[in-house]
Structure formats: C-alpha cells, structure tokens
Amino acid sequence: MSYSNEEVQRYSRQIALREIGIDGQRKLKEARACIAGMGGLGCVSASQLAAMGVGFIRLVDQDVVDLTNLHRQLLYDTSSLGYPKVEVAEKRLKSLNPNVKLDPVPLTINSGTAEQIVKDVDLVIDGLDHFTPRYALNEACVKLGVPYIFGGAIQAYGNVSTIIPGKTACLECMMGRVSDEGLPTCETVGVFPQVMTIVASIQAREALSLMLGKQPSLANKLLFCDLNSIEFEVFPVIKIPSCPTCGQPIVPPVTEAPRVAELCGKNSFMVSPKDKVSLDMAEATDLLSKKFRVKVRANMGVTFDYSDTISISLMKTGNMLVKGIAEKERALKVYDEVMKLLMSRARD
Amino acid sequence: MPKVKVIFPSVLVKVTAGDKATEVFASTLGDALDKLAAKYGDTFKEKIFDSRGKLKRLLNFSVNGKNVRLLKQLETPLEEGDEVFIFPSVSGG
After folding, report:
1. Around Cβ A150, how many Cβ atoms within 10 Å?
2. Rounded to the nearest 5°, which phi and psi values hold at A5?
3. Can you give the pLDDT at residue A83?
4. Chain A nearest-CA residue for B62
5. Does B90 lie at the interface with A, CB-CB under 8 angstroms?
6. What is the CATH number of the domain that holds B59?
7. Which of A42, A180, A229 sits opposite B10 (nearest CB)?
8. B65 φ, ψ to 5°?
9. Looking at the predicted structure, is the pLDDT value of residue B60 above 80?
C-alpha cells in the first residue's frame, strides 16, 4: 500500500509516534471500523478515526439532527437541523479527510439489523444511547467474532470496556440484561459534553490498539469515570461460562426485532419497516411534497410536517421518526399510511 | 464465616463515610450488603437497593469480577479472601 506526499504530511505527527510509525499507518489505512450511533460519542470517535486515516468507516444512525443535539454532537451545526445525521457526518468527515472511505447507513440498530452492519468490519465502536440496541450489537458481535468497544456517558459519568468475542466478558457478562424502561437518559438528567469527548476518545484509543494489532487496555476491564471529581476507576469483569449470549456453546438468544421504539420522553417513535426497504428519496420526496409541507430535502431522508403537531423524518431505509405522537399504535398507523401513499403513487 | 473485601466506586463514597473499601465477614453477597447497610445506615441502603429490596439496575456487583446477575444474585456465596466490586453502568451516549 503506497502513500501520496499529501498523506505522509497529513499523518506525519502520528507516524512519528513509536506506537504507530509507517507500518502502523498502513494498518490503519487497511482497517475497517463501524461506528454504531452518531450522537455525542459517535461524532467524536468518527472524527478521530477519519482524521487519523482509518481506511473504511461505516456510520450508522437512525436519527435526524435536532437542536438539542448541538451542545455535544460536534459534527453538526444549525444548518444541519432536520438532516439525517449520517448524511451530515459523511459530508463533514469527507471534508476532514478525503482519503477515507465512508459508508453512511441511516438505519435503526436492533436484533434484525445488527449483523448486517457488523459482518464486514474489523471492529465496532459503540455510540448508542440505550441498552436494548447495545445488546443486539453485542449478540451480533459475539456471533460473528467482531470486537465491540462498549461506551456509555450520562451526566458526568462514563463507561468504556473492550469486548473480544470468545476471550473477554461480553456486555451481558458485565451487566446482565438491563432493561431501558425508566432509566435516566441524557434528556431527563442531562450530560456534560466533556464526558462524551473523554469516553469516545478512550474508545477510539482502544480501537487504534486493535487496528495496530496490540492488546487493548480495557479487555476484561470496565472503566468508570466521574468528571465531577475527575476520578477514573477500573473494575475487573470476567467472562461467565453460563452467559446466555457468549457462554458455550455460543447460541445467542433469539429476540424478535421490535418495529416501534419509543424515544424517551419526547412523544416520539422510531418505526422500522417490516422488510428491507430502499427508497428512491428524490421520487419519495416529490410525492410527499404534493400532500405535505417538506421542511428538509436530503439525499438520505426527508423531514416533513404530517400535520400541525406531527413531524416526520423518513429515511431511505424505510425507518421513520415520528414526532408529536404519544401512542405507539398511532405512530404505526401514521407509518403505514405514509408508506401506503408512497407505494400507491409509485405504482401510478 | 469468610472475610471478604468490598470495593466501592467513587460515587458511593459519600454514603460509606469516605471508605473506598472495607472488610466484612459474610457468607453471601446479601449477607455482606446487609452488614454494610447496618454499618453505614439508610443512605447506603437506599443507594444499593430499590423500593422492592432488589439490587439497583444501574449498579453492578461482582465477586472477583463475575457479575452476580449471572450467578445467584444476592444468594451468591462468598469465600475467604473474595473481592466484591460495586460499579455503576452508564447507559447514555
């Protein structure tokens, strides 16, 4: 693998590092990473990996940019509001480093989709904000043998651990099965942007160790950090032979992918299609604009007013974020109505 | 009865009278936590147990690194010299 003069100069300050060097830089260029969730954590880890020249980075997120994201999600700005996060992130990261191949995927991560996003990468960095999709990712990574760098951040607190399938404790060994119901979220209790940056930077450093063929520092360990007291603590976490996800024989529990997920406290739901969908967004947006007020027309999605109180963001994968509805059944009904409209008009 | 060491995370130190670790004689995790609740009082108990007397979801309890949620929960047996770690899970991102 050869380098242009531009690349040698661009990476010179990290090639100078004893831990990287020219051989390490080649490994980074050959590496394939997936960032699962492009929120406060994912924006930081994706920026660092892209800037450092990791060859392939898949960016996965179901959401569009919201005003409440901007204090901590550093790839987005006011002009990004309503656009799919992965579309904005791809544009920014491409501008940051045109040498990197980016794969933006506007998809909900659940037990039905997790394998498809991790199957052809060397490692996954967690940028999610709930446990349910994390367990789906953990199961897919264990099944396919893909290292998974878990990270979480809320208020002033953070967690990081590096999971190597078959060798270390998996997420379920570490924490059991924690239900998301009633747990505090960044929306209900807040989060310091600084803890996001620290957690994601440690995740990215662990990813670098794996890409460089070195032992990660947080294998079989869980880091807990508290930025109120600026304390970092590391706890041992040991693989448990009877673990339902990674115990022997490895038979991850089969959990049906939920079609509707409520986004805590927002009167919002994320609805996934029953089957795999790939919409022609230009055509879909034209059709929707005949009936609804389109607010944002993007390549990977469209945001429009379904009514005076209900706003919808529809992704090309068929994932739909419905805001302004309190009941799950109503969200599903709206989803079916919009998709039916698109399908019937497309056939005309 | 076995003597075990219990290690607390920084966020619990305000309810453990400043202790970062302590030793206790106990045969199960539940036994150990009951004795610690008697030592440190209700504020400690409220941090550890929910209103139904179960371990709080966002706190993890491990014996020598093995999470008791995948063992026998509060009934997990303890042996001489075991280390019980209490550490928080963080869900957001």
Report:
1. 29
2. -60, -35
3. 97
4. A237
5. yes
6. 3.10.20.30
7. A229
8. 95, -10
9. yes
Q: List the structure tokens of A94.
A: 């491409």
Q: What is the pTM of this model?
A: 0.93
Number of domains in chain B: 1
Q: Does B64 touch chain A (CB under 8 A)?
A: yes
Query: Inter-chain contact A235–B65, Cβ cutoff 8 Å?
Result: yes
What is the ipTM for the molecules in this complex? 0.95
The confidence band for A185, taking pLDDT boundaries of 50, 70 and 90, is: confident
CA nearest neighbour of A227 among A203, A259, A249, A197: A197
How far apart CA A157 and CA A273 sit, in angstroms, is 35
Domains and CATH numbers, chain A: 31-236 (3.40.50.720), 260-347 (3.30.310)
The pLDDT tens digits of the residues spanning A203-223 come to: 999 999 999 999 999 999 999
Q: Is B51 on the interface with A (CB under 8 A)?
A: no
The single residue listed with the structure tokens 């957690």 is A199
pLDDT of residue A95: 98
> Is the CB of B92 less than 8 angstroms away from the CB of A129?
yes
B93: in domain: no
A235/B91 touch (CB, cutoff 8 Å), yes or no: no
